[in-house]
Design goal:
mainly beta; globular; three-stranded antiparallel sheet; 1 helix
Length: 67
């Protein structure tokens, strides 16, 4: 997976798979933010609709959070 690839988005404070977006919402909408493969998260993002865990993103090591 390339760093600019994504399978999930953030919208309205939730995470969604690209295929699970609410009706009328597009990945090209202004309020939709892609979750890119090179992004770092405290925990893996989980789709609010189907529960898919998007483990393609990087996790911030717990030791790094304390610095």
């Amino acid at each position: 997976m390339k760093s600019y690839d994504f399978e999930a988005i953030a919208y309205g404070g939730e995470c969604y798979c690209v295929d699970c977006l609410p009706n009328g919402v597009s990945v090209n909408d202004e309020d939709v933010y892609p979750i890119f493969a090179d992004s770092e998260w405290d925990d893996y993002p989980v789709c609010a609709v189907c529960g898919t865990v998007h483990d393609y993103v990087g996790l911030i090591p717990k030791d790094k959070e304390k610095q």
